[in-house]
Amino acid sequence: MRLRNIVIFSLGLALPWSLAAQVRPASHAPADNSKKPLKLRVSQGVAEGLVLHKVPPHYPEEAKEKHITGDVILGVTIDHSGNVSELKAISGDPLLARAAAEAVKQWKYKPYLLNGEPVEIETTVRISFRM
Predict the structure, then answer these.
(1) What is the pLDDT of residue 66?
(2) In angstroms, rounded to a whole number, what is the distance separating the alpha carbons of residues 15 and 30?
(3) Residues 63 and 96: beta-carbon distance below 8 Å
(4) What's the helix, strand, coil split of the chain in %, to 5?
(5) pLDDT category, 4, cuts 50, 70, 90?
(6) Virtual CA dihedral for 58, 62, 68, 69, nearest 10 degrees?
(7) Segment 68-116, tens digit of pLDDT
(8) C-alpha to C-alpha distance for 123 and 31, rounded to whole angstroms
């Protein structure tokens, strides 16, 4: 009986270590050691503080004629140089979204630094259209 208790106790100590050895944290590099560029998600407020040059959107004539107003939310990726590299409309009227996207594509950002190195970031941009 005593030997059985020792074996069970030993297994209880060893089991967590064997399971831990099988779990690889997500922060480790892939098995093929290929380096994937880092992309961080930052808040809209942080990204607004990095804007160096902003082009205002042109209010589309058709939207004016139809009295279309509202906000457009864009998902934006900013590369390590501060240029808008990807852009996707998340919400808003399609007419207004096209105008907002055309403007934001031309924006220039200060590069976001992580440990002194520029990295790619994802954020959102809100553009308001009011008459």
Answers:
(1) 96
(2) 26
(3) yes
(4) 30, 30, 35
(5) low
(6) 0
(7) 999 999 999 999 999 999 999 999 999 999 999 999 999 999 999 999 9
(8) 29
Minimum mean pLDDT range among 20-24, 30-34, 54-58: 20-24
| pTM above threshold 0.85 | no
| DSSP letters for 13-31 | HHHHHHHHHH---TTSPPT
CA gap 121, 112 in Å, rounded: 7
DSSP SS3 for 83: strand
- Token reading at 116: 């002194």
The answer to whether 73 and 90 have CB atoms below 8 angstroms apart is yes
Element holding 37 (H helix, E strand): none
32: three-class secondary structure by DSSP? coil
Residue corresponding to tokens 């160096």: 52
What element of type H or E holds 111?
none
Q: Where does the chain show beta strands of DSSP type E?
A: 39-41, 51-53, 70-78, 84-91, 108-109, 112-114, 117-129
